[in-house]
Known about the structure:
By secondary structure, the protein is mainly alpha-helical. The chain has one domain (5-47). The chain contains two helices and no strands. The radius of gyration is 15 Å and the shape is flat. The two termini are 28 Å apart.
Amino acid sequence: MVKNHASLEKRVYTVPVDLDKCVAKLKLESMGIEIDRLRPEQEEYLASWNEGT
């Protein structure tokens, strides 16, 4: 995305979950915010949501 930003449409792009989590973690760390790890049942619950529900 960084290399091709000039040719990309202005819209929301999906990224792999691992990349999304990494970016979120880095952003929170840069703000001095620590987060807990999700329990497996919490991760399952979050993964069960579909767009628009």
